[in-house]
Amino acid sequence: MKTKELSLLLLLIFNSFSVFSQSEYLFCKSDEMVAKSLKEHPELKQNQDQLEIITQQNYNLPAEKQIYVVPVVFHIIHEYGTENISDAQVIDAIKVMNEDYSLTNSDAANIVSQFSGIAANIGFQFKLANKDPQGNCTNGIDRIVSPETFIGDDGSKLNPWPRNMYLNIWVVKNVQDAAAYAYLPGTAPSNNVDGIICRADYVGSIGTSNHTKSHTLSHETGHFFNLKHTWGNSNSPGVSCGSDNVNDTPTTMGWTSCNLSGATCSSPLDNVQNFMEYSYCSCMFTAGQKSRMVTAITSAWGSRNNLWTSSNLSATGVSGTPVICTPVADFTSSSTFVCAGSSLNFSDISYNGIVTNRTWIVNGGTASSLNDSVITVTYNTPGTYSVTLTVSNASGSDVVTKNGVVIVLPTTAAYTSGWTEDFENDVIPEADWIPHNMSTASFGISNSVHYTGSKSLSYINSASYVGLVSEVAGPTFDMTAISNPVLTFHVAFAQRTSDNTDKLRMLVSTDCGKTWAQRYYKLGTTLSTSSATTSSFYPSSQSSWRMETVPMNNYAGLTNVRIKFEFTSQGGNNLFIDDINLGGYSFADEILSAHAIQVFPNPATDEIYIESLDGMNPEYILIADASGKILSELYPEKAIEVLNIQTYAAGIYFVKVRMIDGSVVVRKFVKE
Ligand SMILES: [Zn+2]
C-alpha cells in the first residue's frame, strides 16, 4: 500500500510541474527551417542581406498609404479527418488575417497605452484566388487527400501554385511538434515550398481552431513578409535579449505567456502583445514592422513583389467580380463495414463551388433519398459495393465513384468451433480476408515467407507509406462452443531504423465491423522480433518469429465475433503474420518464466495486488480458478494492479501474467 501511495503522489507532482512549465499552445518553427535552408543553400543569404539594407533605409520613409492585395490559395492536405476543415473556417481565417493587417481586430482595443501609438494598419489585404495557375475557376481552397497531412514538412507541400502569383498556405494535421512555419523572403530552399504550412487546428477562429489560436496565420504571414520574432533569430524565447532589426520594437527575450507588464531587457516594457510573440495574447504589429513588410512586398530581393501587381490580381481572379465555380464531387461514409440488414450514412463534402443539384447512385442498397446532402442507405445482401455522387451548379457538374466504399457482412459466423489459418490456400481479397484502405500499401499473401508451410500474411512496407493505415478484416466466429477462447498468432517484424514506430493492432468487432475494440497493440521495438535492418526484412527462420496470445474470454458466448489486423506504417520495415489459431485455453500449455511477479497478500480475503518487481509491465493478467476457468482479464497500465476478489468462493486460484516480452508467469493464491 505504501508503494502505491508514494507512486501516486510522485505522479501528481510530476503532472503539476509539466502543466506549469509549458504553454498549452504550440510554437512556430520558422527560425529553425530558415536556418536549415540557409545552411544548405548559402547562396540565398545575399537575398536576405540585400533586402535588409533596403529595409534599414526605408525606416525613414513616411508611412505607406497604399493597399497591397495578396492572392491566397489554401491547400488542405487531408485524410478525411478533422484536418479537412470547412470552407467557412478558411474564409474565417482570411477575415482574421485581414482584421489583423488593417488594425480592425477586436482585441486591438486591449493594446496597452505604451504601444497604442505605434500600433499599425499594415494595409495588406488577403483574398482567396478565383483563378488557378491554368486560369480555371477556383474558390481558392484546394483539397488533396494524402497521408502527408500527418507529417507536415516541406515534402507535404503538395500542388504548389507559383509563389510569384499566390501566397500558398498548406493546411495539415501535424507540423512536426509545431503549430506552423514560413520562410522569410528569399530563404526558401526551393520556389515550390515558399509559403506557410499550418496545423488545421490553428487556422482561423472557428471550427477546429479558436480565438486564441486565430492569430497564428498573421504571425506566419509576418515571417513571409520578413518579420522575425521580437526576440530575434531563435526558436527559444526567454533565453537571451535579442533584436528583430525593427526600429520601434523593444529588445526582448520574448514571451510564452501574457505578462503585460513584462520587461526582460533594457526597455521599460516589452511589446508582449506583438503578433511576432508567443504570448498568445497578440493583437498588434508596429509601424516599424509595417515599413519592413512594405519593403519586403515591394522589393525584388524578396520575390514577393509580383503578388499585388494589377496584372497578377487579374490573372488570379481576385480583382474581377467573384465567379462561382463548378463543384468538385466528394463524399464520406459513416463507416466502411456494416451488418446485412443495417444502414450507414453518406455525406456530400463536395468543394470548390456551391452544389445546387445532386444525385446519388447506391449499388446494392436502398437509400433514404437520392438527392439529399446526407443519405441513409440500408444494405440487405453481403458484398462489396460502390457509391457514385454527381454534383452540379450553373457553371457545370462533376462526378465521383468510390468502389468498395461499403462492405456488407453476413450476420452469421463462418466458424463455430476452433479455427486455424495458415494462409496456404488464401488470396486477398476473399470471404475470410477482406482488405480495407486498399492502396499500394496493403496486406497481401507472401508466397515465400512462412512460420510453417510456405505462405503467410504480409505487409511490404516502404518509406513512402508514412501515415498510411492498412486493414484486413478476418473471418467471424461463433464462440458459444469454445470455453476460455484465446487467439494466438505468429508475428515477424523488424524496424528499419531504431526510431521507426510502425504499429500493429488487432481489433475485434461484434457488429459486423461497424465498431471495433482493440485487443492487441504493439509498435516499434515492442513489435520487433528481429533487430533493426535498413534492408528489407524477411524472417530467415522460425527464431525470427514470436507467438502472440490474445485472450478472447470477453467474447465467450457471442455468436458473431470478427477479428481485424491494422498496420500503421511509419515508413519502416516489413511485417508478416502466420499460423493464427482460435481455440480453448489451458494453463497447462504455458511455460513458466523467471520474471519476478509478486501476488499479495496471500492468503487474501478482499483484494489482491499483482506487482511486477523488475520494472517490466505485464501485457495482461488472467485469473483462473482451480479448474482452469478464467474469471477475470486485466490490462494493467502500470507495474502494479489490484483486483477485488470479494465475490470469489474460498479456494485456490491462479494468476497468469503475460509480460510484454511474451514470457508468462503463473502464481497461485488462496482466497479465505
Ligand atoms: Zn514564428
List the helices and strands and how they pair.
Blueprint (H helix, E strand, L loop, with lengths): L1 H20 L8 H11 L4 H14 L9 E11 L8 H14 L12 H4 L7 E5 L12 E5 L21 E6 L7 E3 L13 E4 L16 H9 L62 H12 L11 H6 L15 E3 L3 E3 L2 E7 L8 E6 L2 E3 L6 E6 L3 E11 L2 E14 L9 E3 L12 E3 L6 E4 L9 E4 L9 E9 L7 E9 L9 E7 L7 E7 H4 L18 E6 L9 E8 L6 E10 L12 E4 L6 E6 L5 E8 L4 E5 L5 E5 L6 E9 L4 E8 L1
Parallel strand pairs: 1-2, 1-3, 1-4, 4-6, 8-14
Antiparallel strand pairs: 5-6, 7-9, 9-12, 10-13, 11-12, 13-14, 15-25, 16-19, 17-18, 18-25, 19-24, 20-23, 20-25, 21-22, 21-24, 26-27, 27-30, 28-29, 28-31, 31-32
Bound molecules: zinc ion.
Q: What do these coordinates show?
A:
This protein has 672 residues and is of the alpha+beta class. The chain is built from nine helices and 32 strands. The strands form seven sheets. Strands 1, 2, 3, 4, 5 and 6 form a six-stranded mixed sheet that branches. A hairpin with a 6-residue loop joins strand 11 (365-367) and strand 12 (374-379). Helix 3 crosses helix 7. The longest helix is centred in the N-terminal third of the chain and has 20 residues, at 2-21. The two termini are 20 Å apart. The relative contact order is 0.09.
